[in-house]
Each structure stands twice: as C-alpha cells, then as structure tokens.
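Data card: per-record layout.
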Amino acid sequence: MPDEVLIVGAGPTGLTAAVELARRGVLPRVIERRDALSPLSRAVGLLPASMEILEAGGAAAAIRAEAVALRRAVFHRGARPVATLPLRPGDGRRLLALPQDRTEAHLLAAFERRGGRVEFGRALEALEQDADGVRVVIGGRQGRVARVLGADGAHSTVRAALGLPFDGLTLDGDWSIADVDSPDWPLPEDFAIYLLPGGDACIVVPLAAGRYRVIATGPEALPMLPVPMTVARLRRAGAFRIMVRQVPEYGRGAVQLAGDAAHVHSPVGGRGMNLGIADAADWAARLDEGRLEGYSAARHAAGRATIRLSEFGRRTLLTDGPRRRAALAVLALADLVPALGRRIAGRILAS
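The structure for this 351-residue chain is written out next.
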C-alpha cells in the first residue's frame, strides 16, 4: 500500500477516510481549506451502518454519549398528527441525531489519537497525474503523492481537476433551515414531519437537549411551522437550493472521489452524510487491500440507489396528491399494526 496518500477535505467523509487508513497503520496527509472545523452543521442523522464504521475507528462511543437516539417519526397533516413510525424497532439499532460539526469533532479526535493531524488553511490549487503519480500544488508549493481522495464537497476542486462532469439538476425553489434552542418543544426525541398544503413540508429534528433543526420547503423555515415553537435562541438560519447530481465515475487513475464531491441529493431520508461515510470506509479498505479498481463501480451503484430512494421520498411526500395520501394511509396502517411499523422502520434503518 502506498504511504503517500492525500485526502482533500476534512468533513465527515474525509475524516472517516483518514481514521480508517490510520487504524490500518497508514497516516494520510489531510488538508482542509477552512481555517478550522466549521461551527455550522449541515447533516444530522447517523444510521446504524455508519455507527458500525465509526465504532471500528474509535469515534462511536463519544458520538453515542452526545447524540439523541430518535424514538419515533411523527407525521402530521398540517398541525394534526396522523401517524407514527417507531425508530427503535427492538433489535438494538438506533437512528442517532447529532449536529455534523460535533460528528466532525469526534472524528478529528479519533484521528489525532492515532497520530494524525489535519492541515487547516491549506487548499489544493492544482492536480495533475502522470506516470510517476500525482503532482499537486498546495499553498503555492508543488509536491507528489501516490494517491488522492477528493472529499472536498459539492464544489470539488479535485473533481474539476479530473474534468469529470457533475450530471444532474438543481431543483427550483429555495429550501431553508433554522437551528434553534427551544426549552419546551413537546417532541424532544421525535422526528416531526409536518405535511403542508401545496406539497410543502416542515420538519423538526432534535440535535441535542433543547436544540432543534427546522427544515422547510420554502425560503424561511420558522414561519412555515404550523404549530407554536418557543425560540429562546436562533443559532443559524438560511436558505439553500437542492442539487441532485452524481459523477459518471468516482475517479480516474490514482485519484478518487467520495461524499458530496461525487454525489448530492435532497435531504429527504437523511442519507447524505451516511453515504459519504460509507464511501470513505470502502475506499480505505480497498486501498489497503489492493483492490481499488472496483471502487468506482461499487460506490456509483450505491450512490445511484440512494439518489433514487431520496427522490422517491421527495416526490411522494412533497406533492399534494394521491401519492402523498397513499403514503400516509400506509403509515397510518403501520401505526395500527406494530409488526408492520417495525418492518418499515427496520428497512429505513438498514438502507
């Protein structure tokens, strides 16, 4: 296995790749254009499969100690609850909620415990492959590495250097988030989904004790919430556009892509960060075992499946018509038949 490995990007994907290599005895070089870990949080949910990966790397215990183990998904039509789905199906699996910046902090700590460090304030400026490896320019200085993983997000410099297209589309209309402190929100362990007229929706996700994220399909999240919420502190608010895109191949030669550099999709289903963590773990294992040639095909298929699932959920729940009504009918039935609810929850937690 080559000992000159460069990981570009220190988000959850890049840090997972770094930890996975470090626990196999190789300390990669990790660069991050930001001056420090971001205090902002994009992703929230951690699936059981991701926690298995993070367990092996030594970050899981600290994450579990801080995260909220979600109890149920509670579906509302407007303000009225119409169905619940258990998110603790009785087999020990849990869907955990934790701000992305805290997940990153625990991954960084796990990497540093193994002797690694992240070079903050270092941006990749150029990348070119030749017969001797990969030439990179970082901070105005040229160097060579044997392997590169681009985990540098949706606007990836590594992807651009490879000349890979980012096929797909950007959806019309703004979505929004608001991260708030609310001392008396009545669903502190529940994923609350409010389905609104016109195909809109507003979702409240616990982030920590008394802290919540409100996500909405409009430009301002809090005004779309159809029930009252006491906001003691507004930590962050903003609007964004949804991209649904994927590269046709996850790398070329000695350079591969993972996470948002390779795929982006809507937050419906909460799969984005989990998919990047899985990309990173697979890449590190394949690199260690000398079978990297299968990485692109395997992860492209996984990414395509996740995008299809996310788009199915978005088109089903974020429309005001028969598909949404049918989904709610199934969920209402699952509410009455616990075995069906556990089965649906099991499939969600396994995917």
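Known properties of this structure: The mean pLDDT is 90. The first strand starts at residue 5 and ends at 8.

See the next section for split statistics.
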